[in-house]
Amino acid sequence: MNIYVGNLPLEITEDELREEFIPFGEVVSVTIMNDRYIGSGQSRGYGYVEMASKSEGTNAIARLTGKKLKDHEIDIVEALPLSNKSGTAPLEVKKNHRFNRSRERKYQIN
Known about the structure:
This protein has 110 residues and is of the alpha+beta class.
């Protein structure tokens, strides 16, 4: 199970974040997002923790919701999958949704 952790203190490390999740089960990976692409390497204040099982992840979310790390109350939720690897059906676009209709102007001639 992949877990989104937001509102992280900028100085927290991946090892420190891992230590928060270890009591709830096996931690597969921890990634704190940063600005390495623009060269600063500064933390972006959020990251992802992957737990070995869904039950462990659900337990961690329940127990860590509202927890403070270095004076920051973290946001923690189950992360959405990035792709359709789980075999779920893709979202269907409704044909009669107002943004999917072609725009037609109707002119009246008097």
